[in-house]
Design a protein that fits this description.
26% strand; Carbamate kinase; binds magnesium ion; alpha/beta; eight-stranded mixed sheet; four-stranded antiparallel sheet; binds aspartic acid; 409 residues; single chain; 2 domains; VC0802-like
Length: 409
């Protein structure tokens, strides 16, 4: 007998038929003798609808009241899911976050889970119930309803699995796992049987959005065994997210990630002296603008060009700050922004022990005539910034060069 937490996203509980299908899967797990805790999101589109409704009353909705409101989305699906399970003759009970309780801090709309009181859940499971818990919500110490940020039901699922010491946390969604890259760009992309937590974080933060990033960090920290699966298929093993040491047969490269959201800023002709990097990036940080890659290089004339990337949405804000507050101070010749850029990354823990991955990546791009504008590396990834119009081509040729396509043998 195992204790399994199953989290179902919005498309998996989008209508009564989908909810009945969730109940049937739960029943199959119960029939095998397992204890099952179900975490559900709101029906797909529902949270957006609620937020828009609030905005019709108040342009910037009060965060406490917004949480009271959006939490109702999940309150509907827990009750319906419990009913659907009961309808199959299985005992079920639903709880909102506050009923569990799932204790959070008081940061409305982006609260963090502090503690889960799982006594009631354990008692229910022991009494043969399936327990259905609302994702995305909790309660603060003053009894206020809080929510965990968009996509937060993943975090609820993982946190519950950690607290209950579940044998596995299954995340059911509308894709059947994590892929080597986006199949819309590379039709030969292959589902990975497993991926390490670190790789998953790189893939997710680089734009392959399957799981809320925070839930992956959480699972890594508390050693929760996490699996991503499709709720639209009866069978299928999905993708297991593992720890590196559990996985002896690691491929060198697991996937190609990409991100269209990055813009490049270059500060040209700045004097080469101590403090310049701080004078450029200090005001950017003060404005809460995240910087990703940074490059600086000293030219022969003793001046340097300083280049970095920010999110495209923040390009104009960053340029204004630089032109108003920085350019004069440091005597920079020119400041240019470019939002026609994209980042492409090769990700794999295997590159820790393999040399030559970078040169293979650069050769592959060179053969297609794709110019590399910036490079950054970590132990398990190499990223390049290139012209946006070559992004899909780069992803395709790299996917092929690293032999990530479907094994048709
Ligand atoms: N319903 C919430 C949202 O749409 C939480 C979730 O689905 O994970 O963001
Ligand atoms: Mg989701």
């Amino acid at each position: 007998m195992a204790l399994i937490v199953q989290k179902y996203g919005g498309t998996s509980v989008a209508n009564p038929e989908r909810i009945r299908s969730v109940a049937r899967r739960v029943a199959r797990y119960k029939a095998l003798g397992h204890q099952v805790v179900v975490v559900v999101s709101a029906m797909s589109g529902e949270t957006n609808k609620l937020i828009n409704l609030a905005k019709e009353i108040m342009a910037e909705p009060d965060p406490r009241e917004l949480d009271v409101m959006v939490a109702t989305g999940e309150q509907v699906t827990i009750a319906l899911t419990a009913m659907a399970i009961m309808d199959l003759g299985i005992k079920a009970v639903s709880y909102t976050g506050a009923q569990v309780p799932i204790w959070t801090n008081d940061a409305h709309t982006k609260a963090r889970i502090l503690d889960i009181d799982d006594k009631k859940i354990h008692a229910d499971l022991d009494a043969g119930f399936v327990v259905v818990v609302a994702g995305f919500q909790g309660v603060d110490e003053n009894g206020n309803i809080t929510t965990l940020g968009r996509g937060g039901s993943d975090t609820t699922g993982v946190a519950l699995a950690a607290s209950l010491k579940a044998d596995e946390c299954q995340i059911y969604t509308d894709v059947d796992g994590v892929y080597t890259t986006d199949p819309r760009i590379v039709p030969e992309a292959r589902r990975l049987k497993s991926i390490t937590f670190e790789e998953m974080l790189e893939m997710a933060s680089l734009g392959s959005k399957v799981l809320q990033i925070r839930s992956v960090e959480f699972a890594g920290k508390y050693k929760v065994k996490l699996r991503v699966l499709s709720s639209f298929e009866e069978e299928g093993e999905g993708t297991l997210i593992t720890f590196e040491d559990e996985n002896m047969e690691q491929p060198i490269i697991s996937g190609i990630a990409f991100n269209r959201d990055e813009a490049k800023i270059t500060v040209l002709g700045v004097p080469d002296r101590p403090g310049i990097a701080y004078q450029i990036l200090g005001p950017i940080a003060d404005a809460n603008i995240d910087v990703d890659m940074i490059i600086q290089n000293v030219g022969a004339d003793g001046t340097t060009d300083f280049t970095f990337t920010v999110h495209k949405n923040e390009l104009n804000k960053a340029l204004t700050i630089l032109k108003d507050k920085v350019q004069g101070h440091i005597n920079a010749r020119e400041i240019v922004g470019d939002d026609k850029t994209a980042k492409v990354s090769v990700v794999g823990v295997g590159m820790r022990s393999h040399v030559g991955i970078a040169s293979q990546m650069f050769r592959t791009l060179a053969e297609e005539g794709i110019n590399i504008q910036m490079i950054s590396t970590s132990e398990i990834k190499i990223s390049v910034v290139i012209d946006e119009k070559y992004m899909e081509l780069a992803v395709r040729v790299l996917h092929k060069a690293f032999e990530l396509e479907e094994d048709r043998g």
